[in-house]
Write a structure and sequence with these properties.
Length: 432
């Protein structure tokens, strides 16, 4: 693994930081999340047209830039510093890779160039509140989370050559404004139970979308109700959807981990700035040894989370390129757990060390605290992310049971039987 960034990667980070610093301060963030779209459409247009951010990890064949997960993680890290509300995660990280991996050539050509250009936003809709399960982050995603042949979830039925969807999805990131929905649904009943993905376009008859009130306003969520909605099957009927969702989930976890690192770093920077200005007993509180120790601990945790996120991004890129060895492993879930822990710690310390003003709900420190809590609800919890990583690595596999040793009584009886057999043989020999 080469830990040094290339000149191109450094330019991506520098350019994004300049744009975000100028156009996405705390006041702009609060104003953007209260718009009908839930984000600043002008900023999104600039990120798409000038920087090509939605198509950063898409192939050049479909209008993308052709970069890897590492470049995408670097870009999202800069967005995370300002908690910039954009549809990038839903569109370029969750939905577009599924279209690329499973879609037919016609479907790719119809949607991916528009996504890369920023003209079309997309979202992944999974039944209920099981986004982390569907992405394979907290458990095996080959279960019945999509419906399992029972009532509930989202059910797909093929009638006269047309697929129709019934059901409801909660916590659909940017689902209220997306022009294209990638919906996970259960099909086949008990006879041929399987999970398939479908494309549903904006304005489809029978689809009802409503923006939900979320703890983290900067990560908009929606409820999507599907009532006999006509849908288009993504790819073919026998596609391995759980495997594709698992691959997308690893990259998504890596990107969210990098975003959490950017947010944690910025929360720490703002706290350091504040403790150097606030005075108690005639001196800045940042000069107190206890405060220095607390901030030093946060700094170490943030740097450790950054290293984990960068390694996960490198590993995801190596897997996509078909490398073997260490590059074939998936480290996104573990990096996400590390990143969420770092963000929660940095945000908590920011609230504490800002004193009375930090405890007011309107203070910007709460934006970071709510982002940490919201991501933990969406993609975690952290302990399940770590448990899943340990399960995949085989850390707690039970050892094969060793053969039981015979007791002392059994051994003595066996020895006695052996002596009797030998004495009988000796007596028979004498008789002969």
């Amino acid at each position: 693994m080469d830990a040094a960034f290339s000149a191109e990667q450094g330019e991506i980070r520098r350019t994004l930081r300049e744009v975000i610093t100028k156009r996405c301060g705390p006041d702009e963030v609060k104003a953007a999340v209260r718009t009908p779209d839930g984000h600043d459409t002008a900023l999104w247009g600039a990120l798409a047209e000038q920087l090509g951010l939605p198509g950063l990890a898409l192939p050049e064949t479909y209008g993308g830039v052709g970069c890897t997960a590492a470049e995408l993680a670097l870009g999202v890290e800069e967005l995370g510093r300002a908690l910039a509300p954009t549809p990038l995660l839903a569109t370029a990280v969750l939905a577009a890779p599924l279209v690329l991996a499973l879609g037919t050539e016609e479907q790719r050509a119809a949607h991916l160039p528009r996504i890369a250009a920023g003209e079309l936003t997309a979202a992944l809709a999974v039944p209920g509140t099981g986004l982390a399960t569907a992405l394979g982050l907290v458990g095996d995603n080959r279960g019945d989370w999509a419906g399992g042949g029972r009532a509930g979830g989202v059910q797909a039925r093929l009638s006269d050559g047309v697929w129709r969807l019934y059901g409801q999805a909660e916590q659909v990131i940017d689902g209220h404004s997306a022009g294209l929905l990638v919906v996970a649904a259960h099909a086949g009943g008990f006879a041929r139970s399987r999970t398939l993905l479908f494309l549903v376009r904006e304005g489809a008859p029978g689809m009802v979308r409503a923006r939900q009130t979320a703890l983290d306003e900067t990560r908009t969520q929606a409820r999507v109700e599907l009532r006999d909605v006509e849908a288009e099957l993504l790819g073919v009927d026998d596609a391995d959807v759980p495997a594709a969702l698992g691959a997308v989930g690893d990259v998504a976890a890596t990107v969210v981990a990098a975003e959490a690192v950017g947010a944690a770093e910025r929360a720490l920077e703002r706290t350091v700035e504040y403790v150097q200005q606030r005075e108690q007993f005639g001196r800045a509180i940042g000069s107190f040894q206890a405060v220095k120790h607390r901030l030093a601990d946060v700094y170490v945790q943030v740097q450790a989370a950054r290293s984990a996120a960068y390694y996960a991004a490198w590993a995801a890129g190596a897997e996509a390129a078909g490398f073997g060895g260490q590059g074939a492993e998936r480290a996104g879930g573990l990096a996400l757990a590390q990143g969420l822990d770092a963000l929660r710690t940095a945000a908590s310390e920011a609230v504490q060390l800002h004193g009375g003003i930090g405890f007011t709900w309107e203070h910007e420190a709460h934006l970071y605290f709510k982002r940490a809590s919201g991501d933990d609800l969406l993609f975690g919890p952290v302990h399940r992310l770590r448990a899943r990583a340990a399960e995949r690595a085989g850390l707690f596999e039970e050892a094969a049971p060793e053969p039981e040793e015979s007791s002392s009584e059994e051994l003595s009886s066996e020895k006695a039987a052996s002596k009797e057999a030998s004495s009988e043989k000796a007596s028979v020999g004498k008789v002969r």
